[in-house]
Write a structure and sequence with these properties.
183 residues; mainly beta; 3-stranded mixed sheet; elongated
């Protein structure tokens, strides 16, 4: 990574629920999905240069009945080339960038959360993606990942997920079982 932009979001009342299960029951949360990330792609939206990542998730379990088995989830942050966010860099540096500089990468990281990778098993609390009018298009409200389990797995270890950074609310549990969220 050539450059890193750290984005910090303050804890707001959206995440004031006593735990993740209560948060997932709020009206903004329309589904809870457990599955595997099969693709990722960056998305840059102007004029404010918002960097996001679109995750394609093959759904293995979800709370909403009859929802699609492959979904797209949009989340904050991502890795892009400087060329994709050129105006931000040129405005700050007050000069045109070289071809070499434009080819460098920038990691936009939100609240220290590591980016999802292809092959990650994820648990995602999602809301409707109002910017995309299609079934199976969501916005991530919270994403957890399953750590690699070595050796024989039991049902309990196969359903445990942890935060890929800090929990959205520091009071929330560090490890979550999918069963508590799929009701």
């Amino acid at each position: 990574m050539d450059h890193q932009v750290l984005l910090d979001g303050a804890l707001n009342r959206t995440y004031a629920a006593p735990d993740l299960a209560a948060f997932a029951e709020q009206s903004g949360a329309v589904n809870v999905i457990s599955g595997t990330v099969t693709a990722t792609r960056p998305l840059v939206t102007e004029p404010a240069t918002t960097v996001e990542t679109i995750l394609t998730v093959s759904v293995e379990e979800q709370r909403e009945v009859d929802a699609p088995t492959t979904v797209e989830v949009r989340e904050q942050g991502g890795v892009v080339t400087v060329a994709q966010v050129r105006s931000d860099f040129e405005d700050k540096l007050k000069r045109k960038l070289t071809a070499k500089e434009l080819a460098e990468t920038v990691d936009y990281q939100f609240n220290g959360i590591t980016h999802a990778r292809v092959g990650d098993r994820v648990l995602v609390v999602v809301g409707d993606d109002a910017s995309v009018q299609k079934e199976g298009a969501y916005v991530s409200l919270a994403r957890l990942v399953q750590k690699d389990v070595v050796g024989p797995t039991s049902r309990s270890t196969a359903t445990k997920f942890t935060w890929p950074g800090e929990a959205l609310n520091p009071a929330w549990e560090k490890s979550v079982d999918t069963d508590s969220l799929m009701k």
